[in-house]
Design a protein that fits this description.
295 residues; mainly alpha; two-stranded antiparallel sheet; 3% strand; globular
């Protein structure tokens, strides 16, 4: 069968793969946002800025220091995570007991500072970042030709998401993190340094955003607004999946990427709004999200 509903199979497969790649980015970005909110109860509006920062750190490391893609993929999340620690210790920590609005405003302000800094340094035009040599080939699957780098993005994203879910939901460390956010005084009575645990959790969420930024750098143009363009969709993914639900965030991110890609085949104009239409329907039927728990 060469066509399905009048659409060539090759076109459907190509859009499905594009949807999986976008969904992989959504999943990793949304997971970092969900971890920070689920464990720290903070709406981190700066998440898109840290995603952008990850891409720029990889770009600058290659341009000025000659650091290759593979080293940058390991080093960049660590460096951006350290910046997240500084931000959490100096500013964000003072707002934990206040209304969520204060944390939202603070992280929004940080977004404007980071975007303005890189806009002043590099302008608004995108910077290209080369793909690693080993991933510049393509895989012939018979019904389509799959770029090796796009396959790598999907695989790396799913491994990162799966590892994060396992640590949070299936290990004693994850149980300790959840307990520390629900009853910090009780956990501190067992000798656990809860403020340090909170700091490292925030750094991990930021590092996930930077990891996604490095993955995106060879696919997208590195520019100061690349995080802002994705942030609203990422928030929608987290809301649909259920605030604080690790599994729900990953599944929803991948699923919405595929839905968005397939929508372009039948009604391309609706592809930019289908995510938000789904969010409206889900919130009307299940306000806690698909995988969230009713309070």
């Amino acid at each position: 069968m060469d066509e399905i509903f009048g659409i060539p199979v090759q076109v459907i497969a190509s859009q499905l793969m594009l949807g999986l790649v976008n969904g992989a980015f959504y999943a990793v970005l949304s997971l970092g946002l969900s971890v920070v909110f689920g464990l720290l109860n903070i709406i981190n509006f700066a998440h898109g800025a840290f995603y952008m920062l990850g891409a720029y750190v990889a770009f600058m490391a290659l341009t000025y220091l000659g650091v290759n893609y593979w080293v940058a993929l390991l080093l960049t999340p660590f460096l951006v995570g350290l910046l997240g620690i500084v931000f959490e210790k100096t500013l964000l920590r003072h707002l934990y007991k206040l209304d969520h609005l204060y944390g939202l405003l603070l992280t929004f302000g940080l977004t404007l500072v980071l975007e303005g800094t890189f806009r002043a340094a590099y302008g608004v035009s995108g910077q290209s970042y080369p793909m690693p040599e080993v991933l510049r080939s393509s895989l012939d699957l018979g019904f389509m030709v799959l770029p090796a780098y796009r396959a790598w993005v999907v695989a790396a994203s799913l491994v990162a998401c799966g590892s994060t879910w396992f640590v949070i939901e299936r290990t004693s460390l994850g149980a300790l993190l959840r307990a520390g956010t629900e009853n910090p005084k009780l956990v501190e009575s067992f000798g656990v340094n809860v403020p340090r645990m909170v700091m490292l959790t925030y750094a991990f969420g930021v590092a996930l955003a930077a990891f996604a930024g490095v993955l995106a750098a060879p696919v997208l143009q590195v520019n100061p607004l690349m995080g802002s363009n994705l942030l609203i969709i990422v928030f929608a993914v987290v809301v649909i999946g259920g605030l604080g639900s690790t599994l729900g965030t990953v599944a929803t991110g991948v699923g919405l990427g595929v839905v968005e890609g397939m929508t372009k085949l039948v009604w391309s104009e609706a592809s930019s709004t289908v995510v938000f239409l789904i969010m409206v329907v889900v919130l009307l039927m299940r306000p806690a999200g698909l995988f969230g728990k009713e309070s």
